[in-house]
Design goal:
mainly alpha, single chain, 418 residues, disordered N terminus, 83% helix
């Protein structure tokens, strides 16, 4: 009985630190919506520089995901999260300690690299410790709890910045990052014993599973579906949401923050809802509902841009927020049905690379190219129309996705176990 209770306490501590770490990941991701307008005023940034501020994070986040995913499958989750959160702490300090935009970009890159492996690592732990039939529910809760970081990165963050200044806010994040790094090393448990065995395997064998994975059409169909979602929600919320509402539509900064907060709160609910619908029906069914809602919201933003009122923006951003974690949770749940536990880190890590590069980074730059220097509202229409086409494409791809293990990956997993 004592051993069982001790084990339960260790598991609670492990999941607790993973949930908190992912909370901070999303805080950094969505803080850009509040930070970007502040930097525009303080450093007189151009639209292209604002686009770069968002893109540098997503490019580094994306490219760090792939090697991190493979290393998670090889070494386990605890080492990766502990080491890279130290890097995140350094990057956060750099942002808060300078007025040089180049150094701010470098710090932003360090932060992205530091927090990149958290979701893949958390999914690896979930796959090891949670029964397959309960993965979707746990994944939904993880996504929702993590997205709560985006809630704090809206109006609450604006209030914190007003009270102590944006630089002091970043110094507080440095301390939080250091605590997470230490706690991750002490509390995370790597259950998959094959991770220890794989430390001495040759690099060619380590990459064999990856080469099998990227040849699977089902994997790529799922990624296109997820790219369409991530590119749309990240750019409308995290990268350009605050700029669209304040510079484009001319809303007061407080109103803008509250609209973003509404969407963030909806996103927290969306992840939980998706987890339960995926468990009761299927992840694909949940994805259909969410993607259709997202398409409707994008049509409103793109074709009725000049008619957008505060009330309409509240409703539209609420819908986009609800769908954000809802569809992301269902998308990764779809990936989990396609891969075995041995390949979760690799599949999710490389998946995040494609999702962030093809979605968030490139599309953020697209916004910066088409929006004029005076932030005229008409300049926002082309990027918004692009998202209509992108989301529709993702919905079509979802129709052809199958919810079953990829045979080639199962066979490769059996070979690696021999």
């Amino acid at each position: 009985m004592t051993k069982k209770r001790t084990g339960n306490k260790k598991t609670v501590g492990m999941f607790g630190i993973i949930f908190i770490a992912y909370f901070v990941v999303n805080f950094h991701r969505y803080a850009g919506g509040i930070s970007a307008p502040i930097l525009v005023e303080e450093l007189a940034l151009t639209p292209s520089q604002v686009g770069l501020f968002g893109a540098i994070f997503t490019y580094c986040y994306a490219f760090a995901n792939f090697p991190a995913g493979i290393l998670i499958d090889k070494f386990g989750s605890k080492r990766l999260i502990a080491i890279l959160y130290l890097i995140a702490a350094v990057g956060t300090f750099m942002i808060g300690a300078t007025q040089n935009f180049t150094i701010i970009l470098l710090g932003r890159a360090f932060v992205a690299i530091g927090i990149a492996p958290v979701y893949a690592a958390a999914s690896k732990v979930n796959a090891e410790w949670v029964a397959p039939e309960k993965f979707t529910v746990m994944n939904g809760w993880l996504q929702s709890f993590g997205r709560a970081g985006g809630v704090i990165a809206a109006t609450p963050l604006a209030l914190i910045i007003t009270a102590i200044g944006w630089r002091n806010t970043y110094y507080c994040l440095v301390v939080i990052s250091l605590v997470i790094a230490i706690a991750a090393y002490l509390l995370i448990l790597d259950k998959d014993k094959t991770a220890e065995k794989q430390k001495n395997t040759q690099k060619s064998k380590m990459m064999k599973g990856f080469s099998v994975l990227v040849k699977q059409p089902q994997y790529w169909l799922t990624l296109v579906f997820m790219v369409s979602l991530n590119a749309t929600t990240v750019n409308i919320f995290a990268n350009w949401g605050g700029v669209l509402l304040t510079q484009g539509l001319g809303f007061d900064s407080a109103v803008s923050s509250n609209i973003l907060l509404t969407g963030s709160i909806a996103a927290v609910l969306g992840g939980i809802l998706s987890g339960y619908i995926s468990a009761k029906k299927s992840a694909k069914f949940a994805g259909y509902i969410g993607q259709t809602l997202l398409l409707s919201a994008c049509i409103i933003l793109a074709f009725f841009t000049e008619q957008l009122t505060i009330s309409i923006c509240y409703v539209t951003f609420f819908v986009i927020g609800l769908v954000e974690m809802y569809v992301i949770a269902s998308g990764f749940s779809l990936l989990r049905t396609q891969v075995t536990t041995k390949f979760v880190g690799t599949a999710f890590g490389f998946g995040n690379l494609i999702i962030w590069i093809c979605g968030s980074s490139l599309v953020s730059q697209l916004w910066g190219v088409f929006i004029p220097k005076d932030y005229a509202l008409s300049g926002f229409k082309i990027p918004l129309m692009f998202h209509v086409v992108l989301v529709a494409t993702g919905l079509i791809c979802l129709k052809f996705v199958k919810e079953k293990p990829i045979t080639a990956l199962v066979d490769e997993g059996n070979k690696r176990s021999e």
